[in-house]
Specification:
alpha/beta; 9-stranded mixed β-sheet; 20 helices; disordered N terminus
Length: 556
């Protein structure tokens, strides 16, 4: 998540390369597609996959297109489509277990819908019976919305869902618990119960809205991730949206992406938290160093270092010599509207105006490709390394034997830096199986969408675009993709502490001065529900009681 007024990157608040919001009220986008013989990102095996058709009178609220190439659609109301969607044969055991469910998911997991069974309602009470079942599954047995009908505890969700008149059900049952419904749908997918999953998607699709409450907005993107997982198109979405440059007039331009980042930078403290805390630590550690070399593994627009240059210019006795090496990739290239020479020109101009001796080094490659010779480290300089929301993108030992995450840390250790600053989302999605990861993603992004909600009206088109282009893609990636195709792999601070300790680093406790710097930022510019806590030598940024991000510093 990288946001500044001209700042872009590629993590959970990173710029999202996606079609801009269409001007339709209330920002609902219909969803038609089918993918045939699509390659499963997990195994490379092929299989026919299903897709869905929304009811004409009930437009779907989805905002992303799960299919890169639309070749048609299945009419869900037709007998042939119903038969096809109810038939498990398109999902062979090999495809189902490797691509749709997680092999680590426990068969003993009972979280979600009850086991399959038969309905006991007669024709006259059939609809009431089905309504009562869905009420009990979502609200519990104490709810009294529907009475005078018999409930069979062994009948499954898909039994009554597949036979219901969905338009009638939604009209009679507007108080659907969307969060629980999403969980039931994900649970069905994790158990390879495609019939139940499709039924839930039909119902949930009528409840989500990109201009609604936080759970409705998040639900639109969570549901899209589930749909993409079912269709095995999550990787296609992520790659399509991670374009190097616009390929059509409907894709966001560089200036549009910058504007989306500006919105989130202004209304959320996540990136300013990273900038302020890292800069304060670097300036504190480098207080007496005459030559400072900062290696930034996510340079983006370089905005962070303008603030540091201004601060170094005020150093008693004169400013130090400042060298900055910027690591870059094609995604930031597009968001910036050009290569790293743009950052160099910007920072050089800033340094000249502040009379700070300055040199910029270009390392135009992703972090996975960086080698020591790319970093231009020179004798006699004090090195600081900055990892702002970027390490979780490095695949670790669970993805590849190359283990770029630990390799990069060992490389940095070999530079003997005076300080390493790391800011990461406080979330656990790296090695979690699908269903556990879905629950964690739902919990984390519920808090994020609630934090965004207090800053802008729900029908604000700029906020809608910012969420679509800066958050949604990462949600889809975490839910729909597996193995190397899943690049959003967050770890909790406790895991980072163990990983960095094994690489030979020691935690550098953040000082009261650093804490006060960030506290001032939160008090002056952001909602009172944001909290800051210094714990175990690190800073935790929270929304209410949910930890959202951590900032830590390390020394060799």
């Amino acid at each position: 998540m990288q946001t500044s007024q001209e700042h872009h990157s590629s993590s959970s608040l990173h710029g999202l390369y996606h079609q801009p919001l269409q001007e339709i009220d209330p920002y609902r986008v219909q969803h038609f597609h089918i993918i045939e013989n699509n390659v499963c990102p997990d195994t490379g095996s092929q299989g026919t996959t299903v897709s869905f058709q929304p009811y004409p009178e009930q437009p779907q609220f989805f905002t992303l297109d799960s299919s890169p190439a639309t070749v048609g659609y299945i009419d869900y109301n037709s007998p042939s489509a119903t038969s096809f969607l109810s038939n498990r044969s398109p999902f062979s055991p090999q495809v189902s277990h490797s691509c749709l469910s997680d092999q680590h998911h426990s068969p003993d997991n009972t979280y979600g819908s009850p086991a399959s069974g038969s309905s006991v309602a007669d024709n006259g009470n059939e609809f009431k019976h089905k309504l009562r079942e869905i009420e009990i599954s979502l609200l519990g047995s104490e709810s009294g919305i529907v009475d005078s009908c018999h409930y069979c505890p062994n009948s499954g969700i898909h039994t009554f869902v597949s036979g219901c008149d969905w338009n009638q059900l939604v009209q009679v049952y507007p108080s659907l618990d969307l969060r629980k419904g999403l969980i039931y749908c994900a649970d069905a997918i994790s158990r390879d119960d495609m019939t139940t999953a499709v039924d839930w998607m039909e119902l949930l699709g009528k409840q989500v809205s990109v201009s609604g409450e936080p759970i409705q907005r998040l639900g639109a993107y969570m549901l899209e991730g589930l749909r993409a997982r079912l269709e095995r198109s999550g990787s296609s979405i992520y790659k399509a949206l991670k374009c190097v440059e616009p390929t059509s007039s409907v894709e966001p331009t560089s200036s549009e992406l910058k504007s989306y980042m500006t919105i989130l930078y202004q209304i959320c403290p996540y990136w300013q938290f990273a900038y302020k805390s890292s800069n304060a630590v670097i300036e504190e550690v480098m207080a007496n160093e005459p030559i400072i070399h900062i290696i930034d593994f996510q340079i983006a627009q370089g905005t962070q270092w303008e603030h540091l240059i201004h601060s170094l210019a005020r150093r008693p006795g004169g400013p130090p010599v400042l060298r900055i090496t910027g690591v870059d990739d094609s995604q930031s290239f597009h968001a910036r509207g050009g290569g790293l020479h743009i950052v160099e020109q910007r920072l050089t101009k800033c340094a000249e105006s502040c009379r700070v001796p300055f040199e910029f080094h270009n390392a135009a490659m992703s972090g996975c490709e960086v080698e020591r010779q790319n970093l231009s480290v020179q004798p006699g300089e004090a090195v600081a390394v900055n990892f702002p929301y970027v390490l979780h993108h490095m695949p670790d030992e669970s993805v590849s034997t190359q283990n770029h995450r630990d390799r990069l840390l060992r490389l940095v250790k070999s530079l003997s830096p005076k300080v390493v600053t790391i800011v990461e989302q406080e979330s656990n999605t790296n090695t979690s199986p699908f269903f556990t990861r879905f629950l964690e993603t739902l919990d984390y992004y519920t808090a994020m969408f609630e934090s965004i909600d207090v800053a802008r009206p729900r029908n604000d088109k700029q906020r809608i675009s910012a969420e679509q282009h800066c958050v949604a893609r990462d949600i889809v990636n975490m839910i729909a993709c597996e193995n190397a195709e899943r690049v959003e792999r967050h770890e909790l601070l406790g895991k980072w502490i163990r990983r960095l300790s094994m690489a030979g680093f020691t935690l550098y406790p953040l000082s009261t001065s650093v804490t006060n710097t960030v506290n001032d930022l939160l008090r002056q510019h952001f909602h009172v529900n944001y909290r800051l806590e210094r714990r175990d030598g690190a800073l935790y940024l929270s929304w209410l009681d949910r930890n959202m991000a951590t900032s830590s510093a390390w020394r060799c």
